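REQUEST ID: PR-0412
SUBMITTED BY: lab tech R.K.
PRIORITY: routine
TASK: structure prediction, single protein chain
INPUT:
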Amino acid sequence: MTGQQVPHDRPMRIRPMLAGDIARVLQISAGLPHAPHWPIAAYQAALNANSEPHRIALVAETLQPDAPVPGTVVGFVVASRVAGEAELESIAVAAEAQRRGSGGQLLNHLIAAVRELWATRINLEVRASNYSALRFYKRHGFMETGKRVGYYADPVEDAVLLSLALGGQKMG
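STATUS: complete
OUTPUT:
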C-alpha cells in the first residue's frame, strides 16, 4: 500500500493489535521520523496480557472492499498503565494515510478503552519540534503540563508533557 492515498471517507476499523500486525506496525514506524522505533520484542510484550506494565495496543485498518489492499493496517496506538494513569507511548499513521482521520479514530478508541479499564488521565510526551503532533493532541483536549529539558536524544531536544483528564472513576 506504500504510496497510495487513503481517502478521508474510507471506512476504518479500529481493533486490538495482533501478533500478525507487528511487521506492518514496524514498517509504519520505520517510515516516520518522529515515531518511536521500538524493537519487535517491545510490541510482542505489548500484546502479552500478563506483562508489566499492562498495555492496550490497537490498530486502524482499511475496510472498503475496493481499496487497493482491504484490511491493510494504516496506523497503531500503544498505551500503558502507569501508577493508575495511562501513558500514551506511541501513536502513528502511515505517511500515505495521514490527515484522513485514522489518528483521531485511534486516539478516540484508546481514550474510551482507557477510561473503561483503568484510568482517569492519559499522559504523554512529544518532541518540542513536532508541531503537527502538538496541534493534534491539543485538538483532542490534551493540555500542556510541563517540559523535560533534553529528554530526547539524536538530536537532543526537549519533551513537551501533555495530559488529558478523562473524568469519572477508574476501574481496576
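NOTES: The longest strand covers residues 73-82.
REVIEWED BY: pending
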